[in-house]
Design goal:
The chain has about 375 residues and is mainly beta. It has 2 domains: about 140 residues, Beta Barrel (Lipocalin); about 210 residues, Sandwich (Jelly Rolls), CATH 2.60.120.560. Helix content is about 5%, strand content about 45%. Strands 1, 3, 4, 6, 11, 12, 13, 14, 15 and 17 form a 10-stranded mixed β-sheet that branches. An 8-stranded antiparallel barrel has the order 18-20-21-22-23-24-25-26.
């Protein structure tokens, strides 16, 4: 068994340290203001419906000044891909049918009417839809409500919606939303993973694996909904881009030498005396595995935007030379874990193994100098 395990561990040896999921309560470091608090500099929309008052952006329709269709105020800071956006919103009192939202990874469909479509972080004065993910204008494939409030959703590769878990009851989340007062909203988009939070409570968690319909970047915009007269206010809008701190940050953490602390193979924990003595050294995007005087080499790539975080291992020596091995990983300080699949098996989705599953979980610790 030891020889078999040593070979398996050598193939799994490229294990990468990810950046943890952004916390709603994380420090404001890295955030930049999107609104100067004085005027609509940096924003583009129909001034009939958008203005600034008392340090807030105001979107308003009246019986005398209705909008024929949903209208948007577009941030002119450029297209955004991976980001965290924070802002506060408030609806005017006695306005229970008011509806608004923030568009992200969206596109301007009509420049003359300021029509925008794409992913929408929805919110309303009513009791049902605040916090959902909605496909405004069908830009993300005409998928309508992509996640209801409280849903954990995967849109699979066949573009079918799978509800895979719960973040809580919709009515319990609604109970945390303040009526006629300011609410704090957070949107996180990282790769194909989307999260919304209101007042610190997560409202949706979506993984979009539908390549044919997924939108990878686009504009940010604020919405005033067509229909009954309404008024919505926005303040404290700020943005932090995340793409620069994904894979690059992980690679920086990964550099150095690692050794095995434990392993599980095909449903069984590997006894400590069966663990081979090997050292994995990561330099840039390459790795070497030194074991009993022999050296294996390879390259790797990572995608910390996926959940679980993913890596592809490409051995350049040994029996799997020329193949791509599929894995997931996680990290905590000087320890990291990898679960990888043998050739012919799909990418693991959890850090568990079962008999004859072709999966191996390895725990590593940083080698002391």
């Amino acid at each position: 068994m030891k020889n078999q395990l040593a070979c398996a561990l050598a193939l799994s040896a490229i294990v990468l340290t990810p950046m943890g999921r952004m916390s709603v309560t994380a420090a404001e470091e890295g955030f930049k203001p999107m609104f100067n608090g004085k005027d609509l500099t940096g924003w583009d929309g129909n001034k009939q419906f958008w203005s600034v008052k008392d340090g807030a952006i105001v979107g308003q329709t009246t019986p005398e000044n209705p909008t024929k269709g949903n209208t948007f105020l577009v941030w002119t800071g450029g297209d955004v891909s991976d980001f965290e956006m924070r802002f506060s919103y408030r609806f005017a009192p006695n306005n229970d049918r008011a509806n608004s939202g923030v568009q992200y990874r969206s596109k301007v469909m009509n420049q003359q009417t300021w029509s925008v479509g794409g992913y929408q972080a929805d919110f309303e004065a009513g009791p049902n839809y605040s916090g959902i993910l909605y496909d405004e204008g069908g830009v993300a494939g005409g998928r309508g409500i992509m996640a209801g409030r409280g849903e954990k959703v995967i849109w699979d590769k066949d573009c079918q919606k799978q509800v895979v878990g719960s973040l809580g009851k919709s009515e319990d989340i609604q109970a945390t939303i303040k009526k006629d007062d300011w609410n704090d909203y957070v949107i996180i988009a990282r790769g194909n993973h989307f999260q919304h939070f209101i007042n610190g409570k997560q409202t949706v968690d979506v993984i979009d694996e539908c390549e044919a319909k997924r939108v990878k970047s686009g504009v940010i915009a604020l919405q005033v909904h067509a229909g009954p007269p309404m008024k919505v206010e926005f303040k404290n809008l700020r943005l932090k881009t995340l793409s620069a701190e994904g894979a690059a940050a992980d690679l920086e953490k990964l550099q150095g030498a690692w050794e095995i602390a434990g392993a599980e193979l095909n449903g069984s924990v590997v006894a400590s005396y069966d663990l081979p003595s090997l050292v994995v050294t990561i330099t840039g995007k390459s790795y070497t595995v030194n074991r009993d005087g022999e050296t294996d080499r390879g390259e790797f790539s990572i995608d910390p935007a996926k959940q679980p975080k993913q890596m592809d291992i490409r051995p350049q020596s040994g029996s799997d030379e020329g193949r791509t091995l599929l894995a997931i990983y996680t990290v905590d300080g000087d320890s990291f874990r990898v679960c990888y699949a043998a050739p012919g098996f799909g990418r693991p989705t959890a850090f568990t193994t079962e008999p004859d599953s072709g999966k191996l979980v390895v725990n590593y610790k940083r080698k002391k100098q």
